[in-house]
Write the structure tokens for this entry.
Amino acid sequence: MKASGIKLIQPTLILLAMSILCTTTSYTYAQEQLNVLFIGNSYTEVNNLPKMTADIAQSRGNNITWSSNTPGGCTFYQHCSNNSMTLIRQGRWDVVVLQEQSQYPSFPQSQVENEVFPYAKRLVDSVYANNPCAEPMFYMTWGRKNGDQGNAPVFPVLGTYEGMDSMLCLRYTYMAESNDASLCPVGRVWHYLRDNNPDIELYQSDESHPSTAGTYAAACAFYTMFFGDDPELIQYTPDGINLIEATAIRQAAKAVVYTRLDKWKRPEPQIAVDTLNMTGANVTLVAHTQHADSIEWRWGDGETETTSCTDSIIEHIYAENSEYTVTTSATRHCLKAEASILINIAVDQDSTAVGIVNILPTTATLVVNPNPTETKPHVIISGESRPLPESDITIIMPDGRAARYDRIDFDLLPAGVYMLRIQTQKGTLSTKLIKK
């Protein structure tokens, strides 16, 4: 294995009933299914997490076809050169679950940067290269019941459950965010259960691997991530778990996962579009995007163009006077967001456009500060800072809808990309606003 400059920590390999070679297993329910590949090691293999997740799905009328590669103690580094890459290249997956060796992501930063992050990226890159519409999903694991005592003398934070678990949460969150992937927060579900239902035993006697209840908590979390379904409606309970325990585990999955799906799922594209300029039938539009690779412009007159998100300002000339609905689509990894704007081409005899009034004056500028923002921002118009006015201002929503600002509670607006359009004595000014 590739080593860092600080060779201070070694993983502990605990052998249970697990594969020693890189093998492939599969389980099929029906013809219409979500195809999922599980890549990991014994934390995925013990109690057959993939099958338990599929059993849960079947209890709710959903179906999963799955395959797995889960040799004991296997790391991302090893998965980059074993059967996992062969499976990824099959190119038929809807979701690819990625679980690192249970200790590696909790190790010191320099070691993780050398021995974990590069191989996490390599796996995700391979998923997208071979499965353009697939969803890579990191499997956030949990801290050991009493921490990693073997490595605590070298890295003291690992000496407690809380310390080790916090490191795992931090590193898995970084891997998901930096690789444009989703994150299944199993470790957070376990943390919730340890805090609120300490009588439920999540660990086996080795204080590391999951008990049946621990795997059930993971399976409920994965089912919720896969289908976006309320885990409290799950009908399946595995043998060895009573109804009280099963209910508590489902409630934990709902509290941690279901109510915060937007936090754990990879970001979807966002787009807002506005008119930048217009001269006669010549219209210039600007699109503001997040988490997007390309923009499709459907001009409403039968013409269609596609640009990269770096080419977000585009010009179009209409052949006839009419009203047109321009629809823009931002895409990434087969995810799509749309926004529309109404264009009214009405040209008088002097060839002066009268259908659109939001032409950006060349003598005035508009800046929003702070931007991005969580609270009501200030605006700077031609260098003069002033509070955001309550009237004469329009917010263009991410889906293209327009709303009066004085009728909207800014603090209640969801995170996203918006357009601010302000009517001033110097004309109508527009700028992008990002709400965090």
User: Anything to note?
Assistant: The radius of gyration is 26 Å. The longest strand covers residues 270-279. The chain has three domains: 25-264, 267-356, 360-436. Residues 360-436 form a domain with the Immunoglobulin-like fold (CATH 2.60.40).
